[in-house]
Design a protein that fits this description.
Radius of gyration: 32 Å
Largest sheet: none
Number of helices: 3
Distance between the termini: 74 Å
Structural class: mainly alpha
Number of domains: 1
Helix content: over 70%
Shape: elongated
Order of helices and strands: HHH
Length: 119
Amino acid sequence: MDSFIKKMIKKYKKVTGMAIVFLLTFNFGFAQNVVEIKNPGKFDTINELIEKITNLLIQLGLALIILMVLVGALYIMISGGDPKKVTKGKNIIKWTALGLAVVLLARALLTLIKFTILG
């Protein structure tokens, strides 16, 4: 008798679980109110979102490039003739120029991809 009750409880759990899944999965049309989610951004497509993000990153990169050129120039100006500080300032400016090239090439590559894919 005890095993019979255990089997019935097990079947009851299975049937109850399937009923819950069924009820949660299917919409019976009883919903009266429809929830509308408004677009919080100022863009309508994913392309506009990607363009805004890339423009922001490029602007931040250009601002950082200007700052690093100034830091490199400052190292050279306050070096007092110390060759190590002059070399450090030159290296900062050299690597900043390389960073500028990367930022500009990234922008050009994104534009090329955009026009190739989107037409």
